[in-house]
């Protein structure tokens, strides 16, 4: 079972007690206003967790995934499978995040495996969570709108440190999510923008929904994550529509899809989009 750390302890273990302002240039953020994490100790909480188990002991049946490289000496690129829960959706006409909607939960797993390969946290959206969404994922206002639940600006330095700990110097990071082009990516970009920052230029994104549209037509199965799990006969324990459970499901699905498409490293890079793609969603 994942170990839960107090927020201040997790910060100290990953950043060696460095303040957030020291991390910003190290993490490759574009110049902008320094983050204001307030007091991490005062906002200490126990929903941020860094999993210290090796891959496989947390998720049964998921093996480290490495694509065929163009050179045997080329280091592998981390594949970060991630998912978010939010307070709302998108406006169908403009395609923008509805004004004021925020992320309430974030989870990520490095599919390449190893220790400390996952990161998850609840996030304080600083606004109410609509009741109809709370019935879907059990994330309600009382759960996240508390002073002991961190805001995205509090968690951002930890997230950047986590990514750097998985990244090979000089190599990109590939983020993978289902519908990342229209949902996860724009929300993440807006949270960075609220911190007067931009996502690093070496972050690339792959949308498994776009990959799913290339699968052989099958009227029995839709393209949402739940339907893809049924298509591949994947069973994932735990509540659905929570960030880490959906990450677990997508890890299985992405491995199956990668096999179906015989994806190589080059093929995966061809599917990727740059972080700058999401700038059009910023208000």
From TrEMBL:
A single Pfam family it belongs to is: RNase_T
Q: Which GO terms describe its molecular function?
A: 3'-5'-DNA exonuclease activity; metal ion binding; nucleic acid binding
Cellular component terms, GO, for this chain's entry? cytoplasm
**Residue ranges of every copy of the Exonuclease domain listed in the record:** 78-263
Q: Which cofactor does it need?
A: Mg(2+)
Known SUPFAM superfamilies for this protein? Ribonuclease H-like
Keyword Signal present in the record's keywords: the answer is: no
Q: Which SMART domains match?
A: EXOIII
Q: Tell me, what is an example of a GO biological process annotation in this record?
A: DNA catabolic process
Protein name (database record): Exonuclease domain-containing protein
What is the originating organism of this protein?
Triticum turgidum subsp. durum (Durum wheat)
């Amino acid at each position: 079972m994942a170990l839960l750390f107090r927020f201040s302890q997790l910060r100290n273990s990953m950043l060696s007690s460095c303040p957030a302002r020291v991390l910003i240039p190290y993490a490759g953020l574009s110049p902008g206003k320094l983050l204001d994490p307030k007091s991490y100790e005062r906002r200490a909480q126990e929903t941020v967790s860094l999993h210290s188990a090796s891959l496989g002991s947390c998720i049964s049946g998921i093996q480290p995934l490495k694509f065929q490289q163009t050179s045997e000496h080329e280091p592998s690129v981390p594949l970060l499978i991630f998912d978010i829960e939010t307070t709302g959706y998108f406006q169908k006409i403009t395609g923008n995040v509805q004004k004021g909607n925020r992320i309430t939960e974030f989870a990520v797993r490095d599919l390449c495996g190893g220790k400390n390969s996952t990161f998850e946290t609840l996030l304080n959206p600083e606004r109410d969570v609509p009741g109809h969404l709370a019935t879907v994922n059990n994330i309600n206002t009382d759960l996240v709108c508390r002073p002991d639940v961190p805001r995205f600006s509090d968690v951002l330095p930890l997230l950047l440190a986590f990514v750097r700990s998985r990244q090979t110097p000089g190599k990109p990071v590939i983020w993978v999510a289902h519908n990342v082009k229209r949902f996860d990516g724009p929300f993440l970009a807006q949270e960075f923008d609220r911190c007067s920052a931009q996502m690093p230029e070496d972050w690339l994104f792959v949308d498994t929904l776009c990959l799913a549209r290339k699968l052989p037509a099958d009227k029995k199965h839709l393209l949402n994550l739940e339907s893809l799990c049924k298509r591949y006969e994947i069973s994932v324990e735990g509540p659905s529509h929570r960030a880490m459970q959906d990450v677990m499901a997508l890890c299985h699905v992405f491995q199956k899809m990668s096999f179906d498409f015989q994806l190589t490293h080059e093929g995966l890079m061809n599917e990727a989009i740059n972080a700058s793609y999401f700038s059009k969603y910023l208000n």
